[in-house]
Each structure stands twice: as structure tokens, then as C-alpha cells.
What we know:
By secondary structure, this protein is mostly helical. The chain has helices at residues 7-22, 26-39, 44-56, 60-73, 79-90, 94-108, 115-136. The longest helix has 22 residues, at 115-136. The termini are far apart. Keywords: Repeat, TPR repeat.
Amino acid sequence: MLADLDESDLACVRAYALARFKEGEIAAAQRIYFMLATLDQWSFDDWFGLGLCYQRLGQHDDALPCFAKAGVIRAADPRPSYLAGMSYESVGNASYATKAYLATLRLCGENAQHRKLAHSARARCDALSTSQSKGNS
Length: 137
């Protein structure tokens, strides 16, 4: 952590950021998550939340490094790679989107908890593969 801050204080600020996000105040939540990620650079929740905010705001180039950092912090969690795939798709990078979805599938494995996410990642891979093959013909 960058600063010597009380964890309970950070938890209150995180709860406030999440409340802003859930209420649709995405730009406000983004500013709070940005501050939190700056203060605690190893917080998965802060980087993941910041990435989600950027993604919802359509700022996919800003979302991608947030999902990358979240993925490094919690390497077994398939959600950051899946959301990175969505952002790569949004900026037109089908190749990297496919790689991100394949990473999601590897991380999901046979885990029942991630079955829906794996199904969606597989469907997105298939759709990208179909659109790429149509573009090459």
C-alpha cells in the first residue's frame, strides 16, 4: 500500500464506490476506484472495479490495463480475462479478444462455479471465429 491507511477506512470508501456503481453513477465510481487503486496498488477489487467503470463508460483502452492488473493480482480468477476480451472486441481487436476468451476458458476449467462464464466465453470465441472466417473468404 502506498499510504499507511486504516483498512476499515478503505473498506468504507470501497463500499461507497460500489454503491455509486450500483446506482449507475459510473463516472463517480470511476473516480473513487482510481483513487483507491492508487492508494492500494495490490487490491483486486479496486483494479477490477476501475476496469468495469472504464468499460461501462466506453473507455476500453483504459479498462484493459486495469483488467490486466486485476488478473495478475488474482491469477486464478477468469473474470478479468473475460472482460478484457469484451473490451478488445469493442476496440476491434478480434485476435486479442479471442486470446482473452481462450484464457478465460483455461481458467474456468471444469469449475461449476464458472460454467456460465465459460459458456459465454466459448460462444464469443465461436462468434469471433465465424466472423473472421467470413472476413477471409
